[in-house]
Amino acid sequence: MNKMNHYPPTIEKDRVARSFLRGMPTYEDQAVVQKLVNQRLMELLVQMGRNHYGRILEIGSCTGMLSKLLYDTFSPELFLLNDLVPEFFKEVKSKLSAEEGAAILPLFGDIEHLELPADLDLVTSSSTFQWLENLPRFFAKVQQSLSEGSVFAFSMFGDETYYEIKELTGAGLRYPSFVNVRDKVAENFKIVHADIDRDRLYFDHPREVLDHIRATGVGGVGGFSWTPRRYEQFVDEYIDRFSTEQGVMLSYVSYLIIAQKRGE
Fold first, then answer.
1. Over the stretch 120-167, which tens digit does the pLDDT of each residue have?
2. Can you give the residue ranges of every domain in the chain?
3. What's the number of CA atoms in the CB half-sphere (13 Å) around residue 206?
4. What DSSP string runs through the chain?
5. Which of 14, 54, 136, 151 is most buried, most CB within 10 Å of its CB?
6. If we measure between CA atoms, which residue out of 106, 28, 47 comes closest to residue 258?
7. Under 8 Å CB-to-CB from 103, ≥6 apart: which residues?
8. pTM of the model as a whole
9. Are the C-beta atoms of 230 and 212 separated by less than 8 Å?
10. Which of 124, 104, 120 is closest to 44 using CA atoms?
11. CATH for 13-260, options being 3.30.70.1060, 3.40.50.150, 3.40.50.1980, 1.10.10.10
C-alpha cells in the first residue's frame, strides 16, 4: 500500500474533542495502556515521598481514571480538572468521594489558551500532551503556575505509537522525540525522572485494531481516505507484516517525566 502523508499543519482540537466524546462510553474498557501508564505515573509520584498535595491541577482528565487515583492518594483541598470535553466533568466527579472542605472544580477548555491558577502544588497529566501544539511554551506556563519545589508530573504518547498504522497508511500524529520533550522540560524544571515505556496490545484481526483505536477516542487514522479496496489492502498487509503468535500487534510508546520547580 502506498503511504500517504496526512499530517495536518496543526492539531484540529475540535475534532479531537468530538472523537473523545464519542469514545466516552467505551473508553475505560479499551484504554488498557492508558491504565497501565496511569499506574506507573502514580507509582513515581508516590516515590517522591509526599502523601499530600493541597492544590492539584490535572490536565486531560477524560473519564477520571487518573483523577480517582490522585484524589484518593493525595487528598487535595483544591482539585482542578481540565479537559477539552466539558461533558467529562460530571463523569469524573461521580468517581470522587467528596471530602469535607475539598473543592473539585472544572477548568475546561484548551489548556494552552487558559490562564492557570497560581501556587499549585502539583500539575499532572497522563496520555494528553501529544495533543498540544507548543510544548515549550506550555511547559514555561506550567512553571509559572507552580509554587517553589512543587511537582510537574506527566506521561504522554510518543514516537512510534501506532507504528503499524503509520507504516501502512501514513496517517497519524507527528510525535516529538523523547529527548526533545525531556530537554524542553529541563529548561524550566529540575528533572527527577525521565524514561520511556513501550507496550504492545494484540488482537485477532486488524479490524479489531481499528475498533480499539476508535473506542479509545484517539482517532489515530483520521484523515486517511478509506475505500473498500484500501481497507482490504490494509488488512492483508497488517496480517502479513505484524502478525505474532499472540495476534496482530499494536504499539504504544509513552514518555514518563517527573520534574520539580527550582528555587528562585
1. 999 999 999 998 999 999 999 999 999 999 999 999 999 999 999 999
2. 13-260
3. 19
4. --------SS--HHHHHHHHHHHTTTHHHH-HHHHHHHHHHHHHHHHTT-S--SEEEEE--TTSHHHHHHHHHH--SEEEEE-S-TTHHHHHHHHS-PPTT-EEEE--S-TTTSPPPSSEEEEEESS-GGG-S-HHHHHHHHHHHEEEEEEEEEEEE-TTTTHHHHHHH--S--PPPHHHHHHHHHTTSEEEEEEEEEEEEEESSHHHHHHHHHHTT--TTTT----HHHHHHHHHHHHHHHEETTEEEEEEEEEEEEEEPPP-
5. 151
6. 47
7. 77, 78, 79
8. 0.88
9. no
10. 124
11. 3.40.50.150
> What's the CA gap between 217 and 161, in Å, rounded?
15
d(CA 54, CA 79) in angstroms, rounded, equals: 8
Amino acid occupying residue 241? R
For 99-103, what is the mean pLDDT?
Answer: 77
| Cα 13 from chain centre | 14
Tally of residues, the chain? 264
Residue corresponding to grid cell 514555561: 140
Side-chain-facing half-sphere of 189: CA atoms under 13 Å = 32
Cell numbers placing 168: 501502512
Measured CA to CA in angstroms, residue 27 lies from 82, 131, 136, 174, 243 at distances of: 17, 17, 29, 23, 25
